[in-house]
Amino acid sequence: MEFSFTSEAWPIAGTFTISRGAKTEALVVTATVSHEGCSGRGECVPYARYGETVESVLGALRSATAHIMSPHDHHKLPALLPAGAARNALDCALWDLRAKLSGTRVWDLIGMAAPEPATTAFTLSLAPPDEMFAKAKANSDRPLLKLKLAGDGDLDRVWAVREGSPDAAIIVDANEGWRREHYHALVPELQRLGVAAIEQPLPTDDDDMLASLDRPIPVIADESCHTADDIPRLSALYHGVNIKLDKSGGLTEALKVREAAMNAGLQIMVGCMVGTSLAMAPAMLLTAGATFVDLDGPLLLARDRAPGLEFSGSVIGIPSAALWG
């Protein structure tokens, strides 16, 4: 077993802005695991919100490799790496390697149906209302838009997007940027505007506050949901969960999160950080039965890997074996 880990910077088309800040490039770490003439790859996005940096992820990956002796060693990863970006890259690389070694697809190895094309949300960065209107109008053919919000001034932003794209379904995502007063003021207006879901409105430490709030619009946990162990607590507070491989620590745990959430009657959103098609491809295995798919990372980049996922408008095709799995 041979391992290599590289960091890469992929330019974003413009600037990607959320309530916590803005960036112009996606910094990713790619893990490559080779064995018996085959190589598997996995990509992760270190996320400062969870105390991750490119350097910390690279260091964690290098430390873990001494304990990985077989392409089947997924079961060792939780003891070696916490749920997060580093475990995700290595877990997905091992799955890809197993698929390459066996000459079959990952979903066959897992024993699940092949993924089908899925319609993804398209994200509009946090911006003044006139800019969000223009972006919504330019993407008015997309059936699902996700709006990054921050609290003050959000109603004007949503109105602007609704005017620019009157037929799209809308998800709003505050990335923990609201407080109770924002929620009370905004939710009735968002309901009148036909907003389909609200993603992580409050800080994770304020999750329990949701129990005392009216929730006429489905509320989806993002930053609050990482592993399957989170589901029992969240099921009493949220209508759904956003499953991201970079939070769960890879496909292996993400499948467990999906099963636990579905058993709890929660809606499923399949989400991503801003990364390339290599990061999105494993997440396609989670999309069956999902209420929302948000795997638009490559659409937000100035360029993508080749080969990458094929997009027809907002519809994502099945990942090729040459890309992953």
From TrEMBL:
<feature type="binding site">
    <location>
        <position position="199"/>
    </location>
    <ligand>
        <name>Mg(2+)</name>
    </ligand>
</feature>
<protein>
    <recommendedName>
        <fullName>Dipeptide epimerase</fullName>
        <ecNumber>5.1.1.-</ecNumber>
    </recommendedName>
</protein>
<dbReference type="Pfam" id="PF02746">
    <property type="entry name" value="MR_MLE_N"/>
</dbReference>
<dbReference type="InterPro" id="IPR029065">
    <property type="entry name" value="Enolase_C-like"/>
</dbReference>
<dbReference type="InterPro" id="IPR013341">
    <property type="entry name" value="Mandelate_racemase_N_dom"/>
</dbReference>
<dbReference type="GO" id="GO:0016855">
    <property type="term" value="F:racemase and epimerase activity, acting on amino acids and derivatives"/>
</dbReference>
<dbReference type="InterPro" id="IPR013342">
    <property type="entry name" value="Mandelate_racemase_C"/>
</dbReference>
<comment type="similarity">
    <text>Belongs to the mandelate racemase/muconate lactonizing enzyme family.</text>
</comment>
<feature type="active site" description="Proton acceptor; specific for (S)-substrate epimerization">
    <location>
        <position position="244"/>
    </location>
</feature>
<dbReference type="InterPro" id="IPR034603">
    <property type="entry name" value="Dipeptide_epimerase"/>
</dbReference>
<feature type="domain" description="Mandelate racemase/muconate lactonizing enzyme C-terminal">
    <location>
        <begin position="129"/>
        <end position="220"/>
    </location>
</feature>
<feature type="binding site">
    <location>
        <position position="173"/>
    </location>
    <ligand>
        <name>Mg(2+)</name>
    </ligand>
</feature>
<feature type="active site" description="Proton acceptor; specific for (R)-substrate epimerization">
    <location>
        <position position="148"/>
    </location>
</feature>
<feature type="binding site">
    <location>
        <position position="222"/>
    </location>
    <ligand>
        <name>Mg(2+)</name>
    </ligand>
</feature>
<keyword id="KW-0413">Isomerase</keyword>
<dbReference type="Pfam" id="PF13378">
    <property type="entry name" value="MR_MLE_C"/>
</dbReference>
<keyword id="KW-0479">Metal-binding</keyword>
<dbReference type="GO" id="GO:0046872">
    <property type="term" value="F:metal ion binding"/>
</dbReference>
<dbReference type="InterPro" id="IPR029017">
    <property type="entry name" value="Enolase-like_N"/>
</dbReference>
<dbReference type="GO" id="GO:0006518">
    <property type="term" value="P:peptide metabolic process"/>
</dbReference>
<keyword id="KW-0460">Magnesium</keyword>
<dbReference type="InterPro" id="IPR036849">
    <property type="entry name" value="Enolase-like_C_sf"/>
</dbReference>
